[in-house]
Amino acid sequence: MSLARQRIALVPVALLALAAPAAAQVQTDAGAVEAESPEGDALTEAPLAATEVGALSPRQCLRALVRAGVAFERLRWGTSGMATPVVVTGPIAGVTVHANRGQAPHETMDCLLAVTLVRYARFLRSRGVREVRHLSLHRRGTTDELARHPVMPRHPGGLAIDASVYVLDDGTEYNVTRDFHGRLGAPVCGPSARVSPLPEARFLRRLFCDAARAGLFHVALSPNFNDEHSNHFHLEVARSVSWLFVR
User: Fold this and answer.
1) Per-residue confidence of the chain (247 residues) as pLDDT tens digits?
2) Nearest to 138 by CA among 159, 112, 118, 164
3) What is the secondary structure of 42-99 as a DSSP string?
């Protein structure tokens, strides 16, 4: 996610559920027009799970990753922008997380994101998801950015994942680009949000909004947010904050 071109203003979660809905109709594959339905309940007031993880010290974080049984390697150099860089070399709590271009997990990220993904993976397993493919994890910041801020937020800090495909135990694939069926600028979660009647769209919306309600991430951006997020869910944890931004 590039915030240089679009600044995110942090707003209370309660306000996100009160945005006025757009017109609620969708064209199905069969050609019939069906009314969309409300997404569900309003979001929680505070992202308690993400806030708990974001407050961990490097030592506490690494211990939590060991206790979770995640196969990883600690990196001590060559990974600019991250406070506690690790390479995850196996499944996370039963879910394989890897880039679209590869098959074997060998993913560099900050320890805080790795611990967050443990909790997210348990959430996903309860919904039959065994694999997540992503477009991006750590992206190195510019030389100027790193000179000003050696420890970075978001992708440059290894604290965000752009999840694009979810694979179920039976091999079914849900692709955000193809299956989300959102509307640019429309509310994504809560009573004001409207969801396509297509089952794949409902599944992805539940994945996105239920994770937000559980407070698993501080930032959750869907294709409804802007064109840059049309093909993925941006899921991000932050250090020592207690706000939640969902769009």
Assistant:
1) 443 333 333 333 332 332 333 333 333 333 333 468 888 787 766 667 899 999 999 999 999 999 999 999 998 765 677 889 999 999 999 999 998 776 666 788 999 999 999 999 999 999 999 999 999 886 665 555 554 555 655 667 889 999 999 999 999 999 999 999 999 999 999 999 999 999 999 999 999 999 999 999 999 999 999 898 899 999 999 988 888 899 9
2) 159
3) PPPSS-HHHHHHHT--HHHHHHHHHHTT--EEE--SS-TB-SSEEEE-S-BTTBEEEE
Q: Which two tokens stand for residue 58?
A: 């490097």
Q: What is the C-alpha to C-alpha distance for residues 195 and 36, in angstroms, rounded to an integer? A: 5
Residue 122, both tokens: 């348990």
Q: Where are the alpha helices (DSSP H) in 134-194?
A: 143-148, 176-179
Burial class (CB in 10 A: 0-12, 13-18, 19+), 19: middle
Q: Which residues pair with 233 in a beta bridge?
A: 163
Find out whether 166 and 233 touch, Cβ atoms under 8 Å: no
Domain map (residue ranges) of the chain: 38-138+149-246
* Tokens 């199905």 belong to residue: 28
